[in-house]
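Bug #77: duplicate submission created two jobs. Keeping one. Sequence:
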Amino acid sequence: MELRDRVVLLTGGKRIGSTVAVELARRGADLALSYNQSRAEAETTAGAVRAAGRRAIICQANVSRGEDCEALVAATVAGLGRLDVLVNMASVYRSIPLERMTGDDLQASLDVDLKSAFLCARAAVPHMRAAGGGRIVNFSDWLAVSGRPRYKGYLGYYVAKKAVMGLTEALALELAEDQILVNAVAPGPILAPPDLPEDELGAVEKATPLGRWGGGDEIAKAVAALIETDFITGEVIRVDGGRHLR
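Kept job's structure:
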């Protein structure tokens, strides 16, 4: 699929999401950007998309709710005329010790990291079918894809990201006859948290075979590749600098 004059709905447009949105705009796409609480960041990203010469709209949505996902897709089609690509980047990443974790905490992770991708896909698919095909790109995590839950306190996140792999594969099979290709990106060491100590920064670099953090551009290139392909579906692509090899 060529991106020029296509419409992309991207959820979770902060940090790496902003980089992805701008790269897709540079390749010719118009963007609908969802946000839950970070309106200012969404407006900044929309401004960057428009600076690249493409249209952009922003929409507030709690993507863990089905009605919000339906409204988000409807607003995208109403504002930009169609919907060709869905990029599910909305995610929560927080540490909760097991002894303090509740069923509600687990559900909160599943709602945003897993259920939202399903709900947005379910809402988007009829419009993609009407257009003769489409692309869905989900987000997992390199640890989940590698089967390595190595950081304690992130049980909910890990379980949800592992489940995203299954969702991606199942959706790919369900939608193949409609020429809707479904894949996922699994980021590794891409952007360091702003408060990460120097020694931990260095430790991550040392543990990564390529010897560096990747940067948001690497995720943007992976997303673009999974949109532009016409024959890859049901795959989860690690973008981790070879981190899974050690």
